[in-house]
Amino acid sequence: MSLQNQTVICLLHDEFEDLELWYPVYRTREAGATVLFAGPEKGKKHIGKYGVPAIADLSFDEVNSDEISGLLVPGGWAPDQLRRYPKVLQLVQEMNEQNKPIGQICHAGWVLISAKILQDRKVTSTPGIRDDMENAGAIWFDEAVVVDGNLISARRPPDLPPYAHAFVQALEQRMV
Asked: Can you give the C-alpha Rg of the chain in angstroms?
């Protein structure tokens, strides 16, 4: 199924994990969706941990949850910055309330923790933040991908193929 006419936002900040940002973005674009980057400032370039740049198409303030189909939160060190923006937390909360797909991998769970949406939700993440996830009320699994309703989570880069596949499937299921 094609994801034409579907728009996904990928959150952006410095020190994102390059593969965890670009792999799901490309896979979602290959499925037909438009994927835009949202950062603190429209047009600002952000550099990944390994030097790959990405430029914000929109500022956080320009994103309207009613106008997008899904949200991707990359890992790396960016999530520690992303969770400090009230608009990012509001967006995550709204997407969750609207039951729209939210993809998070590795350290991206920090953003969901700060948005306070993990109580009694099944998730995975990098094992390094397992305690954080569980302390936020999540039920943590050491699996490549965990899907719990609209939340799609993965541990780390080797899990990218099944993670991106599960995220695209979640978007397709909303179209049915």
From this structure: 14
